[in-house]
Amino acid sequence: MTDLISRVLSRATRTSDAATPKRPQESTWRLCKELSPLLRLLILTQLAFNIGFFAVLPFLAEHLGTAIGMAGWLVGFVLGLRTFSQQGLFVVGGWLVDRFGVRPVVLAGCVLRIAGFAWLGYAEASWTVIGAVLVIGFAAALFSPAVESEVARQAVAWEEDGHGPRTRVLALFSVAGQAGAFVGPLLGALLLAVDFRTACLAGAAVFVLVLVGHLWLMPQHIPGRVRVRERGGARALLRNRRFLALCCAYGTYLLAYNQLYLALPDEVQRAAGSQAPLSWLFALSSVLVVFTQLPVTRWAGDRLDLRRSMTAGLLLIASGFAVVAAARPAGWTGAAGLLPAAGFVILLTVGQMLVVPAARAWVPDLAAEGRLGLYMGALSSVSGLIVLAGSAATGFLLDLGLPAAVPWLVLAAVPALAVAVLPRREKGAGAAA
């Protein structure tokens, strides 16, 4: 599977090279070979994480409603608990990484994820399902900040060694995650032909492989990583206005991305009379990332710094909402009615490809010494709180019965206004995007 992804990305990267002749032709395979063994391990870990996760979670709501017989409100509550136990506790996982190191936190997260998926496979009562979901969420709150913070730190070192912009490494990390998110549901759909328990156990088996891989390959001590034992990191973080500004801007991107699950289904239902085309639109987003993330990042790296990359991405996302807003008064249906939705997905995805690597690459410049795990976790947790509040407001907005274009125009304004919140780049802080 990794060979297939490398070949696919290699073709996409070679296409990008034609537009930037000043650099020698470079394949994704060559880029991977330039990376340290630790970086390759972490990027493959992200691929495996998402395969295991998305083999189960997309099918959880239906399982809870049909097999377990939960009421709709309780299904929503359980899914919300999973999100809170994951995104909301990222900051805790990041603090633990700074305190104890990457290896023990990743291993603990893998053990909890294995236990959580196995438990979920056998859970038949509401309280057991809730317990399993909380364990699954907290597992990600451990290993995701650990992996993301170390990839960001290694990417900075890679850049400082003269290999190129750090965002190229972080883009490859995003591609691996998106590839896993694409493959995982396909695997889960095949396993559901047996039953949900089989899908859960297969997801647990993926994390067993990850656990064994890290036990064998992850070094006990990573050179350059210093464990911080002093307190006070959270207070300094809350006083770091530039970092909090980045979190707010990144949170507006996440809020926009969340509309794939909130505003977009309503638009697809209106245009097509069902939500069947949604799966094709989600697949379109995944394929775009897998094929074009590296070329887009390379193009941005030649022309934009991190702030400008995020600015361009947020404005593209805003234009995606504006496309739907402009088309809504026409009331198109059928295939023509789906074109604005497809335009929204494309612009949102391209904007994501600019925003995500740039935001993650920016965090090391804003983090206090030795606190990268805490700051990387806080980026997700603070942004998650923005999404929580913003999603509730969006749902209220969609239910007000306003003219069709108004909610989409409001949603377009949010990422556009977030550009003004982005912190100014300090001289000498992390070169180009």
Provide a quick synopsis of the model.
By secondary structure, this protein is mainly α.
Sum up the structure in keywords:
disordered C terminus; Growth Hormone, Chain: A; mainly alpha; 433 residues; disordered N terminus; 18 helices; globular
Descriptive notes:
It is a multi-pass membrane protein. The protein is mainly alpha-helical. The protein has 2 domains: about 30-220, Growth Hormone, Chain: A; about 235-425, Up-down Bundle (Growth Hormone, Chain: A). It has 18 helices and no strands. It is globular. About 50% of the residues are buried. Residues about 1-25 and about 425-433 have low confidence and may be disordered.
Helix content: over 70%
> What is the averaged pLDDT score?
84
Number of strands: 0
Shape: globular
Rg, rounded, reads: 21 Å
Given as residue ranges, the uncertain stretches (5+ residues, pLDDT < 50) are: 1-26, 427-433
Query: How many helices?
Result: 18
Largest sheet: none
Transmembrane segments: 38-61, 67-84, 105-123, 129-148, 169-190, 196-217, 243-260, 280-300, 312-332, 338-362, 374-398, 404-422
Membrane topology: Multi-pass membrane protein
GO molecular function: transmembrane transporter activity
Keywords: Cell membrane, Membrane, Transmembrane, Transmembrane helix, Transport
